[in-house]
Amino acid sequence: MFGIVRPCRHRMCGKLHAAWLGHLCGLCLTLRDEHGHRARLATNYDGLLISVLLEAQRPAPAPYRPAAPCALRGFQRATVLSSADPGARLAAAVSLVLAAGKTRDHVADRDGALRVPALAGVAGRLADRWAEAGARTGDGVGFDTGVLVAAVARQSELESKVVPGVPVLLATEPTETAVAAAFAHTATLAGRPGNAAGLAEVGRYFGRIAHLLDAVEDYADDAVRGAFNPLRASGTDLAQARRLCEDAHHGLRLALADLDLRDRRLVRALLDREVSDAIERTFALAGVPVHRPGAEHGLPLAPPEMSAQPAGHPVERPEPRPDGCGGSLVVGGACVLTTCTCGLWQPRWSKHRRRGCGDRCWCTRYCNCDSCHCCNCDCCDCCDCS
Prior knowledge:
mainly alpha; Farnesyl Diphosphate Synthase; 2 domains; two-stranded antiparallel sheet; two-stranded antiparallel ribbon; Regulatory protein; DUF5685
């Protein structure tokens, strides 16, 4: 898992953000309860997708419990997924095994402080304990983590075969396989076997996107360190990588639409909007021009009130948000943060700024219901605003 789904509080309505945080903190506390405080280091943003997918398929919401204040959430209390929930336990097992594989890679590459033999030894032993702990927890929910271990082991072998002219997707296959297996098992735990194939497809596309974005983020650093990078090794330029990511995201959305889910709001927010934002954010930072459908036909990039600006307001250049939350580019002086919140955030000169949720949400104002699925968007279904 690579950390794609990292929603900013201001881009997600209150209830959805609370639900996301409940899964994230639930994963962290499950790792603690099952394997001790040190195991919490394996917590990652993408691992919580497993418990989110399981809860979305079940006939009733998952069990939650109150959690004490934590420094990582500003010493606030929270309602989090119970560590007894099979979704939280499966997410913990996958996170531990993949974290173990990642740690071993860092040890093998002698990254940073791991150049010191004593520290490398400690990290190696920690990775072994995490792999064993993940296997035990996986067995408890009927998931064989062997498929993850095999995928991690296969990675180095496949990377050695990636040379110019060889498709870069050869290098992404182990990640795709690992994520597909984890996602598909949520269908088994939820008692919805009909979702297994679709979830495996969602997992393959998500794994592909995650691996490619990781390679884009590390592209310059890998060149300096002389480390393997699948894009450079295969001769895939960043524009090609972007097309592969966008194609995979299109496939992911189609597979997601075919799933039988009780509640798809958080799933859509994370696997549709957040993945899209991660693609735009990563390639914007890498200097690859942002492609917006419709721009080549002279269509507006945003609803009218987003492009309007008061006289004398400076026209700013698109740039990534400094807080790392992504997505907030400036178009014609109006912040695309409006887009990321479906219009809940509005610039101070917008006539919709102080209106109710339904009036602010441009999904409902500009949607063609015959050709898209943005009506009844996540924020308008459950927002806390009055």
